[in-house]
């Protein structure tokens, strides 16, 4: 058996550095957080070769005294905490006193600093954890500059696993965005290979920061949120439901201005949007959650991105309520249905069979003498402008709608104020059904049916057993018959479809597919019931039915989307039509 020995300081430092400094982005994070703690109003970051060759972070903070500079490069030396009690009320970004020492042990580092009262600045150099010189005087501006060269030069095994320059620069940019969004009153400059990537104003306006990092389009489609409880204050911005992204990297949560990775908070945000955005699309969010430091434990993870929260469920409830309270302002249209005074002429039949050939075939002679068998170019209309135009029309105008007819037995065509409204009858009815069910399930009970035996697949059976409480609470009375079969005795009062057996099986199938990694909820089951009991695409509707559906849709809380987040309506303006027909 090998003899137990105490590790040499140099080896121990490298091991410790590996826990904190795993890539160039980690170096940038630690150094910029130090600059923030120093009270800086201007912070600059420059990198070369993705930060592998050079990282430089400079600020205009309070600076470091020359006698403290050697200490700043030692482990567990810090100006931020002194006693064990200080860990219960950490108000700074850093506190362990490990960052500079860890960086210095695996790089070649130059530390230059000047305090307000000092006529000169001072510089100290260290290589691989060994100090090369005592502080020497230099001319520099007030603040601190840290230049890091040759990351992991003395740990080849770690260096070879670094990503490409562009990938490492991408990770550094992500760090800068997170820190920049949380400190809009600080002006951040980021340079990559001597090229300025962005420079924030530092004027304290979060929207300006969003413009810098994500562009004007994102900023214009964000709305403010604000909420508070006895323990928490929530502020920030979220995007309108129709402005989404394909992943969650644009969602930022800050607890006391510290960026945190918290799955529960992200899930809460997703659930607040769940009926408003399509599956696989995610809202953007910058949310600040502030509370007393004593209710947090930030000393959990080496990167400090994991925070333990006391009474986290209360925070989740407040966050959900705050987001839902803010969303109606951007999702509630102010439509009204115009009563028809005369029967409109029926819409002509439209044939899009040749759309794949970018041609539309006309088999009728027009009043202007166009002969039969004439082809016209079909101009493609881009969906994205239509969605934006729809939102603008709905949010800014009170639009009376006149129902004109049905297209392809799937879409209701309406007219209002020079705009053409195309309503997906299934999505619209699904929204109406869902909101009626949500109201009824609070006041209605069950309806007794003839006992019905239903055979289940193994997947359906397992899902139903795991979700028994959810189905019971909604009003289903289910007995297990054995052999993978059940007896359905009662169904919810709001379940109006006569083919309840087929609908029930369809619901289970969809839930099995949609919830492989998540638990089934009352909300999800209700959505599935609404979907399966709604008017289908391809189903003919008469004039009275269409008018009733449009009226019902406009009276819902969120008429622009079905419960699963698909749009119910698109709007084509007269301007858009004239543009597509090359009239403008």
Description:
By secondary structure, this protein is an alpha+beta fold. The chain folds into four domains: 9-199, 2-Layer Sandwich (Heat Shock Protein 90); 221-331, 2-Layer Sandwich (Ribosomal Protein S5, domain 2), CATH 3.30.230.10; 336-341 and 350-428 and 537-580, formyl-coa transferase, domain 3, CATH 3.30.1540.20; 445-493 and 497-532, Ribosomal Protein S8, Chain: A, domain 1 (2-Layer Sandwich). The protein is 34% helix and 25% strand. The protein contains 19 helices and 28 strands. The strands form seven sheets. Strands 1, 2, 3, 4, 5, 6, 7, 8 and 9 form a nine-stranded mixed sheet that branches. A five-stranded mixed sheet has the order 10-11-16-13-14, with helices on both faces. Strands 19-22-23-24-28 form a five-stranded mixed sheet. A hairpin with a 4-residue loop joins β10 and β11 (233-239). It is elongated. The termini are far apart.
Helix content: 25-40%
Give the low-pLDDT segments.
332-385
Strand content: 15-25%
Number of helices: 19
Alpha-beta classification: alpha+beta
CATH second-level architecture of the largest domain: 2-Layer Sandwich
Radius of gyration: 31 Å
Q: Give the CATH level 1 class of the largest domain.
A: Alpha Beta
Main β sheet profile? 9 strands, mixed
Distance between the termini: 86 Å
Number of domain modules: 4
CATH superfamily of the largest domain: Histidine kinase-like ATPase, C-terminal domain
Number of separate strands: 28
CATH topology name of the largest domain, in short, is Heat Shock Protein 90
What is the mean pLDDT? 79
* Overall form: elongated
């Amino acid at each position: 058996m090998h003899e137990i020995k105490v590790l040499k300081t140099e080896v121990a430092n490298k091991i410790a550095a590996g826990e904190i400094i795993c890539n160039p982005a980690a170096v940038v994070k630690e150094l910029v957080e130090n600059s923030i703690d120093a009270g800086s109003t201007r912070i600059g970051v420059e990198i070369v070769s993705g930060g592998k060759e050079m990282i430089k972070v400079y600020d205009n903070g309070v600076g470091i005294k020359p006698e403290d500079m050697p200490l700043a490069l030692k482990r567990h030396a810090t100006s931020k905490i002194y006693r064990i009690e200080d860990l219960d009320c950490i108000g700074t970004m850093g506190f362990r006193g490990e960052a500079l020492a860890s960086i210095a042990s695996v790089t070649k580092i130059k530390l230059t600093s000047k305090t307000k009262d000092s006529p000169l600045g001072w510089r100290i150099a260290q290589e691989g954890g060994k100090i090369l010189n005592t502080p020497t005087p230099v001319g520099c501006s007030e603040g601190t500059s840290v230049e890091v060269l040759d990351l992991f030069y003395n740990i080849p095994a770690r260096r070879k696993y670094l990503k490409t320059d562009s990938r490492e620069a991408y990770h550094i940019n992500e760090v800068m965005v997170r820190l920049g969004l949380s400190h809009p009153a600080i002006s951040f400059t980021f340079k990559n290979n001597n090229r300025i990537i962005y420079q924030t104003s530092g004027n304290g306006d979060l929207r300006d920061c969003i413009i810098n990092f994500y562009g004007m389009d994102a900023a214009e489609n964000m709305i403010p949120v604000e909420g508070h409880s006895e323990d928490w204050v929530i502020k920030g911005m979220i995007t309108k439901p129709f402005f989404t992204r394909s992943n969650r990297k644009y969602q930022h949560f800050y607890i006391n201005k510290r960026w945190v990775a918290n799955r529960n908070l992200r899930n809460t945000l997703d659930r607040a949007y769940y009926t408003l955005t399509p599956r696989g699309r995610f809202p953007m969010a910058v949310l600040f959650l502030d509370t007393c430091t004593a209710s947090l434990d930030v000393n959990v993870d080496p990167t400090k991105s994991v925070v333990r929260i006391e009474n986290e469920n209360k925070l989740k409830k407040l966050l959900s309520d705050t987001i839902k309270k803010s969303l109606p302002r951007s999702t509630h249209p102010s439509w009204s249905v115009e009563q028809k005074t005369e029967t409109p002429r029926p819409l002509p039949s439209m044939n899009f069979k040749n759309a794949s050939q970018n041609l539309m075939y006309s088999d009728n002679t027009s009043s202007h003498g166009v002969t039969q068998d004439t082809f016209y170019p079909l101009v493609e209309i881009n969906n994205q402008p239509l969605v934006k135009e729809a939102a603008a029309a709905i949010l800014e105008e009170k639009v009376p709608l006149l129902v004109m007819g049905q297209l392809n037995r799937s879409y209701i065509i309406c007219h209002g104020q020079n705009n053409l409204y195309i309503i997906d009858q299934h999505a619209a009815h699904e929204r109406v059904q869902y909101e009626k069910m949500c109201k009824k399930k609070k006041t209605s009970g069950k309806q007794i049916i003839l006992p019905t035996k239903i055979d289940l697949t193994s997947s359906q059976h397992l899902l139903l057993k795991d979700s028994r409480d959810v189905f019971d609470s909604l009003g289903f009375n289910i007995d297990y018959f054995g052999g993978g079969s059940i007896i359905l005795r009662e169904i919810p009062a709001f379940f109006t479809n006569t083919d309840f057996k087929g609908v029930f099986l369809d619901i289970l199938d969809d839930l099995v597919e949609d919830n492989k990694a998540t638990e089934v909820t009352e909300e999800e089951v209700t959505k599935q019931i609404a979907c399966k009991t709604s008017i289908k695409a391809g189903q003919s509707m008469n004039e009275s039915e269409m008018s009733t559906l449009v009226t019902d849709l406009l009276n819902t809380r969120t008429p622009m989307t079905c419960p699963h987040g698909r749009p119910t309506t698109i709007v084509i303006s007269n301007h858009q039509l004239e543009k597509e027909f090359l009239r403008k």
